[in-house]
Amino acid sequence: MEFAGVSVAFGGTQALAGVDLTVHRGEMVALVGPSGCGKSTLLRLAAGFQGPTAGTVSVTGDSLGYVFQDATLMPWRSVQRNVELPGQLAGLPATERRRLAADAIARVGLTGFERHRPAQLSGGMRMRVSIARALTMRPDLYLFDEPFGALDEMTRERLGEELNSLFVAESFAGLFVTHSIPEGVFLATRVVVLSGRPGRIVADIPVPFDYPRPPESRYSPEFAATAATVSAALRGAAEVAV
Ligand SMILES: Nc1ncnc2c1ncn2[C@@H]1O[C@H](COP(=O)(O)OP(=O)(O)OP(=O)(O)O)[C@@H](O)[C@H]1O
């Protein structure tokens, strides 16, 4: 995925300005920045839901996964039928989409819950269903718009660990919007910091750890040092916004 000189304006509101960003397969980029700086707009551009006002966005690959802040499940459909939806929309035969859905459900650890409806699941399980739904089509580009923000800390950390395992297994190109610096550092190969609106990239910080990342790596001195670098860039970005 490549952004070159990308700017977006909504009427008189400049949301993004001059963004250059390339994300390859096997890279997970965390996007952090002050509220309203254009993070969701950047994901919508990557998904092709909207176009830039200036510059170019190019995405190569066959499939896209998008996970929203809410699980956005259909309450009347079972887990299985929710996860089958992308295959159904793509016109896959029933046997094929059932197989893909069963595989994705297994990958997020929900085998046995196929017949449950969303209301019968916890918030963390609903988010796993949402991740599985996006996973069915084996996305080359996987976009996450703060998917764990509404979950409790323990669930959030566990889902982060599971997402890291998926990333290692699938090796997609990922863009993960978060307001949590530790979450961004734990998940990402790079953390990109945007300034206050209009969002510009003010820092692109590599995360110097290999995968798999054990949960306790969050408490290592190297982890703290990387998080401190991101935090300093973010504070600078917020001052730009003021
Ligand atoms: N469809 C739209 N029409 C008009 N303005 C919009 C539209 N979408 C976004 N904006 C504006 O563009 C700016 C960036 O919005 P965006 O949702 O991308 O920010 P964000 O960084 O994701 O915010 P947050 O962290 O609070 O979720 C905001 O000022 C927002 O009001």
From TrEMBL:
Give the highest taxon in the source lineage.
Answer: Bacteria
* One Pfam short name: ABC_tran
What keywords would UniProt list here?
A: ATP-binding, Nucleotide-binding, Transport
* Molecular function in Gene Ontology: ATP binding
Is ATP-binding among the key words of this record? yes
Q: ABC transporter domain: from which residue to which, for each copy? A: 1-221
InterPro entries xrefs: AAA+_ATPase, ABC_transporter-like_ATP-bd, ABC_transporter-like_CS, ABC_transporter_ATP-bind, P-loop_NTPase
**What name appears for this protein in its UniProt entry?**
ABC transporter ATP-binding protein
Lineage, opening ranks: Bacteria, Bacillati, Actinomycetota, Actinomycetes, Micromonosporales
